[in-house]
């Protein structure tokens, strides 16, 4: 039943050697890995204008130089990540780069930030997309949280089906969004050139503005940098590309950078030219496309694809999170379960964990996750900064041919990233202080997990000097708890005789009468196995059995035997039949697991009715 | 931690031979077993007046003849249950009587009705008591459900501590309530005799009333019979009495009957004389004591003890439910767990089940359980009627000396009970139809459980002709699934060698490379145990292992060996460490339990860190 449902939802299982079929070609990879970065065009320009609007409409021209700053940073980041892709072709991104060049702890800081960040990405993007949907259909408004959860569940399912198939579905909306924005930009510029656009809606560049400060411009710049979130996704997912993977990934990254640059600068320029001012009621994107097209087909097309890509941006998290979790788990910093490939060859545990964590966030914040955006941006720039720094150290250490130029690219990138982080913490401390707590906590958890795995590995290492073959066969003292004279006990006794010469039955009685009766019945049965009875005045089983085992241990130690307790276990035909049998057997097994040097043999008794 | 909390809440465990100390003396038994019956005086008279009020205030005088009818029925029921107590001194009440004289199905109908009824008693009484509390302190009103749940939890806890101790606590409020009502009646009659009471507030008995019908009077009579709920409790709890239990129980029952008769007739008479009319805002009891005392101390005393006894009426359910469940479980109609005595010698599973079921009802009905009262009354009169009928058959069958008179008592009782049931179904079908569904369903469940236990008992019965001693020792093929070369595998191999000459290790690999590597490593280890490798293209373990076991079974069957699978199981130091190890071991054990003739031996490996 469960199995059939699973097959229906995620498709038939794939063999391990079908793995290469699941690799992405560049066109699909661009769609699947860029939706997060490209979707930020929908809110990045608005973030800049929001800060400038605190001064005056006259200050809006500053969005042009600020956008140029963001483009420079974008270029530096793209160049830098191209270098990272070639240097670390097995993926892992910021985690790998920081770990190898700066040390484990910096790697874990980068990895921990990113993990939390992907969860935030999913929650924030899906909530934003849902808001767009419920704005279009106000009747759905009371169901915001339900819709958001449904969308996350849907994306989780698509990812469990496997990368290629989900990419096919996800490619269309991403390209439609790009198409929509390209049309907006072309038509907008055409109108400007043909004089159909307003010429007086904007102040000219260089107009002096009262009250503007360098600090404010930096704040606007850092807000605009939220358009750069998602740029790192491709460098984490190199193993998903077709061979030659690094070359394909680098090419895809460059394409994404160019598209992002064109869309971002186009939207910023048109918003400036058309004099769009941010408003609480309508997004800048919406106002801009309304100015250009009016409320016609193209306006709704832009709005629809924007809503769609915001939801799909969540998918970037689903591509990157499981791979990062895999890398951390491989290094024993996360539970080993994250290294297992599921039926459809995706790292299903990572996919499911991400889906559940983001649904949890959506429920807690009741779908209003906007307040998480600054936290999310900080979580992105921490690993950006660390990977740039890591690359700087790498160039200094290895000094390959022509490293000076590469060193400068990363140095510039690192400085800008640290600056943006500093601005975030200074200007938005109230919204980002939480990262000062959760990043150290996550790193601490990584270390705890690592310590446990290392300790276990040490305990599991065999001593080469002892050969199993040479150890003498030991005796085995078998203990059979019995509660009456039944076929189950008979079966247990027969099995005990087949594994040992030395078996003892033990009966725990709640009254002296029941003990006397059992003794008599046992004698009449003539099993050849000795019965020992124990009186339990408090009607418990575990305590008297434990005491009895301790007493038997001495006997076993004298003959250097191992000890085995035989536990019959009913296996019922129907699930509810289980309620009709005391589950004390399971409690006893749970107790015996903790007793030193005792083996537990379960003799299943399959009930026929 | 859990253990300490348990000790604190329910006290230290008692030895089985301390059981006789827990028996009830008559004074305590009267309190603990009568609170349900006596508390019905608080609403019984009101139920009669509510029906009469649908005609006119003039009809109120009919409450006197109706009350006489109720008293006659009460007398018949008390006489009848005295006969039942002597005939069935081991308790069980309606269930036992109906089962023995009418057949199993009638017994189960009576038992099932009563079980459900006790749950309703608890929910209804506690809700009513909570309403009284929140009426007194309106600030608590939003917390009605919380308070009701808390009260049920408290009563459950008192009962888990054991009968005598809870009786000591519960005796005072019951006797205070009786005292309060006796004072009301004495002062009321004194006022009437001394002429301080109004003489014109009532119409004289026999005044003709327009529109009155026989049907309506029957309806009022059946409503008044709700005051008789709880009368059967004593006959179910005979084993809780001190010896001679039947004599003590019969005496206590008679005392309760007299008290109930005095209080009921007194309240009905005074309500008639003072001309009290039922009102939605204030109970009849409240109006009556206000008329007699004014809003002075005695008024509040009556109200407080009424509220208290309503809550404590729930306790009758807690005394009777576990005993009835014990009787049904002993006859294999309910899960065996209900026969186990807990730490304090009460049938804790019954107590806990009742507590949880009534909390469930309170939550579902949000503390407004008044609508359940008719359902509850029907649930009482079904077993009443069946036990009377059972006694009729008993007298006819056994014909003891002087049976004619006894036969007439039960015949009269049975006829009245059937009449009341008929009236209930005719006049209140909308509120009681549910019992037509749940009674058959409960009886069906009883039968299903019985069928399972009987089938199991048959399967467990040993064949006397086969002596365990004489069976030849069999071989044992041991299979050890291994995932690498570790100390855990080493331990498993050593154990395997100690129980059999015939051991095979099996490795399930996800890739051909890992299989080749394992083969090589195993050879170098020199264990003397053969390794068989299985390739699992879909990365599953259960399916390939199952196929392998089937193949091995043929080998085992040829040498008529038993089969044992050795499963190492990590036992972690800290609970969260468990999350760091794949729990596939447990899944495999769960699978192996269902495989025929395979024994599972768990080799616990206690991790040191």
UniProtKB/TrEMBL annotation, chains A, B:
InterPro entries noted in UniProt: AA/rel_permease1, APC_K+_Transporter
Taxonomic superkingdom: Bacteria
Membrane topology (UniProt): Multi-pass membrane protein
Keywords recorded for this protein, A-Z: Membrane, Transmembrane, Transmembrane helix
Pfam families membership: AA_permease_2 (PF13520)
Single annotated GO MF: transmembrane transporter activity
Keyword Transmembrane helix: yes
Principal subcellular localisation of the protein: membrane
Cellular component GO terms, alphabetical: membrane
Localization (cell): Membrane
Transmembrane segments: 48-79, 106-128, 140-160, 172-193, 205-228, 249-277, 297-324, 345-365, 371-393, 405-426, 432-449
Protein name: Amino acid transporter
Protein species of origin: Croceifilum oryzae
């Amino acid at each position: 039943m469960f199995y059939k449902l699973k097959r229906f939802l995620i498709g038939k299982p794939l063999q391990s050697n079908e793995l290469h079929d699941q690799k992405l070609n560049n066109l699909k990879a661009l769609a699947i890995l860029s939706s997060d970065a490209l979707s930020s065009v929908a809110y990045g320009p608005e973030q800049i204008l929001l800060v400038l609007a605190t001064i005056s409409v006259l200050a809006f021209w500053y969005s042009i130089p600020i956008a140029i700053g963001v483009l420079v940073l974008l270029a530096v980041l793209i160049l830098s990540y191209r270098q990272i892709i070639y240097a670390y072709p097995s993926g892992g991104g910021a985690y790998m780069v920081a770990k190898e060049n700066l040390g484990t702890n910096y790697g874990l800081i980068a990895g921990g930030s990113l993990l939390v960040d992907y969860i935030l990405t999913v929650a924030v993007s899906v909530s934003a997309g849902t808001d767009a949907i419920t704005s279009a259909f106000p009747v759905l408004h009371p169901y915001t949280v339900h819709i958001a959860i449904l969308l996350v569940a849907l994306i989780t399912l698509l990812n469990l089906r496997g990368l290629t198939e989900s990419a096919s579905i996800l490619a269309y909306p991403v390209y439609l969004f790009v198409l929509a924005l390209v049309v907006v930009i072309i038509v907008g510029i055409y109108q400007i050139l043909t004089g159909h656009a307003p010429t007086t809606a904007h102040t000219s560049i260089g107009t002096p503005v009262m009250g503007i400060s360098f600090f404010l411009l930096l704040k606007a710049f850092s807000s605009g940098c939220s358009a750069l979130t998602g740029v790192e996704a491709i460098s984490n997912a190199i193993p998903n590309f077709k061979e030659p993977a690094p070359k394909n990934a680098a090419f895809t990254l460059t394409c994404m950078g160019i598209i992002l640059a064109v869309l971002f600068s186009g939207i910023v320029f048109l918003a400036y030219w058309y004099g769009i001012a941010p408003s609480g009621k309508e997004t800048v994107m919406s106002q801009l496309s309304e100015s250009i097209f009016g409320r016609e087909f193209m306006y709704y097309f832009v709005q629809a694809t924007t809503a769609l890509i915001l939801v799909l941006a969540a998918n970037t998290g689903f591509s990157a999170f499981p791979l990062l979790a895999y890398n951390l788990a491989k290094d024993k910093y996360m539970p080993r379960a994250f290294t297992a490939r599921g039926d459809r060859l995706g790292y299903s545990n990572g996919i499911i964990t991400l889906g559940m964590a983001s649904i949890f966030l959506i429920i807690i914040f009741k779908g209003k996750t906007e307040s998480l955006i600054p936290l999310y941006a900080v979580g992105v720039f921490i690993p950006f900064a660390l990977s740039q720094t890591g690359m700087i150290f790498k160039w200094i250490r290895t000094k390959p041919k022509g490293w000076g130029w590469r060193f400068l690219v990363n140095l510039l990138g690192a400085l800008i990233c640290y600056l943006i982080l500093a601005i975030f913490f200074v200007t938005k401390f109230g919204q980002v202080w939480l990262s000062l707590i959760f990043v150290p906590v996550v790193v601490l958890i990584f270390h705890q997990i690592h310590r446990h795995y290392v300790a276990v590995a040490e305990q599991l290492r065999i001593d080469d000097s002892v050969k199993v073959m040479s150890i003498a066969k030991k005796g085995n003292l078998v203990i059979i708890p019995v509660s009456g004279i039944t076929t189950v006990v008979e079966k247990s006794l027969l099995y005990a005789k087949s594994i040992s010469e030395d078996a003892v039955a033990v009966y725990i009685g709640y009254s002296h009468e029941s003990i006397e009766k059992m003794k008599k019945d046992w004698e009449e049965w003539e099993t050849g196995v000795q019965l020992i009875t124990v009186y339990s005045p408090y009607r418990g089983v575990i305590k008297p059995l434990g005491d009895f085992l301790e007493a038997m241990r001495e006997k076993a130690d004298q003959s250097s035997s191992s000890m085995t307790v035989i536990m019959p276990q009913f296996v019922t035909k129907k699930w509810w039949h289980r309620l009709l049998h005391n589950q004390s057997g399971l409690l006893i097994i749970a107790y015996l697991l903790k007793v030193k040097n005792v083996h537990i043999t379960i003799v299943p008794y399959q009930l026929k009715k």
